[in-house]
Every structure is written in C-alpha cells, then in structure tokens.
Amino acid sequence: MGVFVVRRVIISIFTLLAATFVVYLLVVNSGDPLEELYPIPNADQREAAIEGRIELLGLDQPVLQRYVGWLSGAAGCLVGACDLGQSIEQQEVTTLLAQAMASTIRLVTAATFLAIIFGVTVGIVSALRQYTGFDYVVTFLAFLFFSLPIFWVAVLLKEFGAIRLNDWLADPGIPLWVTVALAVVAAAVWQAVLGGAARRRLVVAAVAAAATAGVLVYLDAVEWFARPALGPVLVVFISLGWALGITFLVSGLRNLRVLYASLAATAGGLIGATLLAGPLRDPSWLLIGLCTVGLIALGVVAGVLLGGLDRPQAVRAAVFSALLTGATVFTDYVLVAFSGYSDRVNGRIVKTIGSGTPNFTGTFWEVWLDRSASLVLPTAALILISFATYTRYTRASMLEVLNMDYVRTARAKGLTERTVTVRHAFRNALIPVTTLAAFDFGAVIGGAVITETVFGWSGMGQLFVTGLRNVDPNPVMGFFVVTAVLVVLFNLVADILYAYLDPRIRLS
Asked: How far apart are CA 478 and CA 484, in angstroms?
C-alpha cells in the first residue's frame, strides 16, 4: 500500500507539472495584459502604469523564465512558504484563494455529498424495482436533469425556488389542491418503491396518501411553516426511527444485540442533548465538533459493550444511530431559530445572490441559517446534474452485481433479500460509483464557475473568470493548482477505497 501511494504521488507530481506548464502558456498567450492601460490619456501616467505592470508580471522575461519563477514560488507551498504571485491589482493570490476557497469548497462539498447520498439511494431502489413505473420515472428524470443547461436551471431556481418561495413564506398556507396533489404523488412513489402484489400496492398507496394529507393538514392548522420546530417528542420519535432503520439495514431487526446497541447510542445522544441544552442555545463550532466526537465515541462504546459476537455490526449501527440523533437535535435547533432569522431578513429566507448577508451577525443558529440559505439554490443547481449521473451509474452497477454468481449463491443459501442487497451486492456496486465521485468532484468545481457567476458568489469561479478576462495568469494558475491537487487527491483516495470495498483488489 505504501509503495503504491508513493508511486501515485510521484506520477501525480509530474502530471501536475506538465498540466501547469500547458495552462500557463495558454493564459499568457490569450491576450494582452497591457491593453486596458493604453487608453490612459496622460502619457506619463500611461508609461508609468505600463512599466509597473511589466515589472509586476515579468513581461520583459521569456515565458519559460516566468513559468519557472512562478513554479518556484508554488513549490514553496510544500514547506509552508507558499508564494503564488500577485494579481494585476497587486493583491496576493494566496490571500485571494483563501477567501475564495472557503465559499467554493463549502458549495462543492455540500452539492457533491448530497448528490451522492440521494443519487446512490435512488439508483439502488431503481435497480431493485427494474422495469417498474418507478424505474421508468427515475430514468426519465435522470436523462432530463442530465440534459439541462446548468445556467438555465439556475435561473429557474431563482424564480421558483427563491422569489416565489419567499413570497409564500411571508404568509404560508397550503391550499386543498396542493394537499391532494402531494398526497397522490406520495401514494404513487411509495407503492412503486415498496412494490409487491396489487393489493399490497393499493394498501401502501392508501396509507401513504392518508398520512401525507394528514400531516400537511396538521402542519397548516398549527401554522408550522411560520414557526417551525420539531419539539422534544418528535425528536425522540425521529431518533428512535433512525435507530430502527439503521439496525434494519446493518443486521436486521431480529439481531437484538445490534438493536440494543443502536437504541442505547440513541438514548445516550438524547440524554447528552438534554444536559447540554443551555450551551447548545448559542454554541460554537468547537462545541459542535466535540459533540460529534462524543457521539462517535458513544456509538463505539455501546457497540463494544452490547454487540457480543456481532460487535463490528453493532459498532457501525450504534455510531450511525448516534450521529443521526445528533443531526436530528441539530435540525430542531435550526428550526427553532427560523422564525427569528426570518424577521431579521424581512422574510427573504432563500437568497438569490451572494454567499451570505453582508455584515450579518446573530446567534450561531441564525448565522448558520444565513449561510445555508445562500447555499440552497446553487447547491440545488449542481445537485440536479450530478444526481442524474450517480443515479444511472448506481443502477447499472447494481444490476450487474445482482446478476453475478456469488449473489445467486447467497440467495440459494437462504439469505434474506436485505442481507443479499446490503451485505453482498451494495458494497461491490460502489466501486464504479467511487471512481465517478473522484472525477465528478473536479467537474463540479468546473460547473461551479457558471453557478457562481449566475448566483453572484465570490468564489474560485469568479477568481478564475476575472483572471482570464484580464489576462492575469497568477489567479488563474492558483485556481488551476487547487483544482488539480483536489482531483489528484480524490482519485488517490478512490484507489485506496477500492481495496476496502472489494478485498480481492490488491494495491501494489
């Protein structure tokens, strides 16, 4: 493993050197960086500005010498002395990158993570329900989303996902026809997902429609959308539901040791949230991080103590149950802060432009809401494109694995369909998806250039476009280096994950 990683790092270094040289040549030959200075009417000022620009960018040197100078400064990043030069506005590129990376990485990470979660889940269900109505609908939507131009999707989201949604939130109410339509959609989705005989489908559809309509009517009656919150009772029920669901996926509900470990981790998380209710009203990221570490430790302890012979499964189930319990509590605090935040921003919750409200201050939860509200639209735009890709790849990979001999053997041994799917098929089906995720991360950053432009984000995309427009090589090279290093790093992680997902793979 160590030899493999070292060899891949060495190959990646030479690849980056060749790529940076080609990109540098393309940027410096894409235009005249002095063009904007020629119209200066005063001759002395014009000559002084041109001389300053030539000295700043080293335009009096050969291109190869300028590249070597830039490369020597970039190599200093390996020892903590990073020097990526200055922009034509005489700003340090490292400072510009530090400011831009925070916005772009936040956007790309959220979009990639959510696209993987939803895309893989829907892809698996689509494979298990092959050639059903659900499969056909998912296939149609996947091809539709994949073919949509991201800038057009972004404009539609600004109109229907922000402007009209904010207008509705000012006086939220659910008309009867919307309740009926959502109930019908829920009935169609759930009966397609669960499948079965016609009678079972009718029962599932009726229950799903009734439950959806009942929940919507109740939420509308109590004006939940104006003052949202989960409350302690709902937090407990949702957390217990997570514990049961995770146990079912990991080992099945008949494995009582794993179930007890999950329930114990959930109970411990709820008790901890109650004891920390005071500090959690306005916490810090340090406290949130410590709580996350504590939940993981709680899950490990519960799994070790209660897991018995099924200790590895119990640890996994307990850790996920504890983390999801923490996420439920986190969501409750966010919803409680929603009403106060809405008043402070005059009801314009979802932002159409910018990465946050300028100079906004408030509690931890209000600041988090402000940052998250700015993420909604650009993240949704990026998710729609990536979601389609992950769905199709996961479906195809899952279908291929389900038809393999070892899966048929597992079924012949009498294993349940859940065990066959989760333990035997799902893990191997993730190998192509892992490869896709590594490549998609770089593609999402490229797509974020357009997304940031549409939504007015001050991120790496804007830095890149501005550098190209001004024939300013240093910011463009800074963007390229960060993107290239992230792509190489994610591909290396993907290669290492192969050996974990499939023990037959050996890295050497």
From this structure: 10
If phi > 0 it is left, if psi is from -120 to 50 it is alpha, else beta; for residue 346 that is: left
Question: Of 282, 382, 389, 295, which Cα lies nearest the Cα of 333?
Answer: 282
pLDDT in the model for residue 287: 94
**Which amino acid is located at 292 in the chain?**
T
pLDDT tens by residue, 5-64:
788 788 888 888 898 899 888 888 888 888 878 888 887 788 888 888 888 888 888 888
**Tokens 């409200």 — which residue?**
357
Structural tokens at position 465 = 């476009």
**In angstroms, rounded to a whole number, what is the distance separating the alpha carbons of residues 347 and 356?**
15
Q: Return left, alpha or beta for 459; rule: phi > 0 is left, psi -120 to 50 is alpha, else beta.
A: beta
Give, for 192, the enclosing helix (H) or strand (E).
helix 176-194
Give, to the nearest 10 degrees, the angle between helix 93-128 and helix 473-501.
40
Residues belonging to the chain? 508
Q: Which residue has the tokens 């790849």?
A: 393
What dihedral do alpha carbons 227, 232, 238, 239 form, nearest 10°?
A: 140
Residue 203, both tokens: 């029962």
Contact of 319 with 303, CB cutoff 8 Å: yes
- Report the C-alpha gap between 295 and 327 in whole angstroms: 11
Residue 285's pLDDT is: 92
Nearest alpha carbon to residue 212 among 244, 190, 234: 190
Q: What distance in Å separates the CA atoms of residue 144 and residue 389, rounded to the nearest whole number?
A: 11
506 Ramachandran zone, left/alpha/beta (phi>0; psi -120 to 50): beta
Determine the residue type at 258.
V
Q: What is the DSSP string of 276-312?
A: THHHHTS--HHHHHHHHHHHHHHHHHHHHHH-GGGHH
Query: If we measure between CA atoms, which residue out of 459, 460, 507, 454 comes closest to residue 485?
Result: 460
Measure the CA angle with vertex 243, ends 419 and 500; round to 5°.
Answer: 50
Q: How many C-beta atoms lie closer than 10 Å to residue 369's C-beta?
A: 23
Do 377 and 351 touch, CB atoms closer than 8 A?
yes
Please give the Cα distance from 100 to 445 (Å, whole number): 12
How far apart, in whole angstroms, are the C-alpha atoms of residue 383 and residue 153?
A: 11
Cα–Cα distance for residue pair 220/175, rounded to 1 Å: 9
pTM score: 0.82
Helix (H, G, I), strand (E, B) or coil at 225: coil
**CA 235 – CA 242 distance, rounded (Å):** 11
H helices of 39-92, in order, are 43-57, 63-75
